């Protein structure tokens, strides 16, 4: 990904200022969804100038994968930043930004000087109502409200069957396009997280973005979910993914060694089981937190609390026991009153889904890093890149 400057809605007729490619910071593998936090540590003067302009204006920039015109991205709003002085008069800027709205690049333009310009359009989040609303039985409206919990869903299913009795289609067809029922089915797949105290959104739009950013999927699949305008279609695709991956396990991307089960995952922060963290060098790691893991070995170095992402915890680097590739870190509590006392933080790029007996990747995994003509050991060096505007 490239760090570049602020985006505005095209409807306001403002141009978007973008940094030149050779002055940008690359953020590999990261696809930003609305609601997600993006941490940035920057030491290069040009990106620092861009961030200063963002902070002085409206604190907004954008993140997108530049493949061609009409690329889709997400605006990000800076909500926290610090500036630290370094040696020789240099500065280090640390920024935290939150994904806000999806956008589409309409036109990229070159102008004299160093800064190219692009026009973008903010995309709406289309959330349709119940599919059979126009032909419903109005006398049953008093039974349609309430929270989409499992008891209310049973009542809604009964009402839906009665409504569909006067239509050409059975109720199960309408259920495929009902946002509340889609959300309920996705929550059923994620019950193991809710039982551990996980906070999963109930709003269909928020849920669709939460699932997309917490699933271990390839960047191409993540981008395809970001490109979908309709919440119902996004939820349908995510339900299909969850159904297919429900009984699978996490395996090492390089050698296929079994690492963990889906039920080993837990939520360590409010955003979900997978979050982006930035190390002191500026590298961003999308990290999944798990209670248990196997087939991993730890470095001999003693645990360190320096730059720990989790206050009160010390980290030790973890490698795959089979191929020795870097997998992430094991975090151990420095105090007895912290819970859990230990857990694993594994990078998303080190893991893929695997069946219990055979190698497996999600069905939309057809981008370059998993091309059939590419050796598996080289795939981690062939990610698609996205640009931060």
Protein architecture, described:
It is found in: Nucleus. Likely a component of a DCX (DDB1-CUL4-X-box) protein ligase complex. May interact with pic/DDB1. This is Protein cereblon. Keywords: Metal-binding, Nucleus, Ubl conjugation, Ubl conjugation pathway, Zinc. Belongs to the CRBN family. This protein has 389 residues and is α+β, with helices and mostly antiparallel strands. The protein has 3 domains: 113 residues, Archaeosine Trna-guanine Transglycosylase, Chain: A, domain 4 (Roll); 124 residues, Methane Monooxygenase Hydroxylase, Chain G, domain 1; 103 residues, Peptide methionine sulfoxide reductase (Metal Binding Protein, Guanine Nucleotide Exchange Factor, Chain A), CATH 2.170.150. The chain is 21% helix and 26% strand. The chain contains 8 helices and 16 strands. The N and C termini lie close together (9 Å). The N terminus and C terminus are likely disordered. β13 and β14 form a beta hairpin. Strands 1, 2, 3, 4, 5, 6 and 16 form a 7-stranded antiparallel beta sheet that branches. The protein has a 6-stranded antiparallel beta sheet with strand order 9-10-14-13-12-11, with no helix packed on it. Strands 8-7-15 form a 3-stranded antiparallel beta sheet, with no helix packed on it.
Q: Report Rg.
A: 23 Å
Structural class: alpha+beta
Task: State the end-to-end CA separation.
Answer: 9 Å
Q: CATH topology of the largest domain, anyone?
A: Methane Monooxygenase Hydroxylase, Chain G, domain 1
N-to-C SSE string, H for helix and E for strand: EEHEEEEHHHHHHHEEEEEEEEEE
Question: How much β-strand is present in the residues?
Answer: 25-35%
Question: Outline, from the CA principal axes?
Answer: globular
State the CATH class of the largest domain. Answer: Mainly Alpha
Level-2 CATH architecture of the largest domain = Up-down Bundle
The largest sheet is: 7 strands, antiparallel
Please provide the count of β strands: 16
DSSP helix count?
A: 8
Domain count, please report it.
3
Poorly predicted runs are 1-25, 357-389
GO cellular component, one term: nucleus
Domain Lon N-terminal: 21-246
InterPro entries: CULT, Lon_prtase_N, Yippee/Mis18/Cereblon
Protein name: Protein cereblon
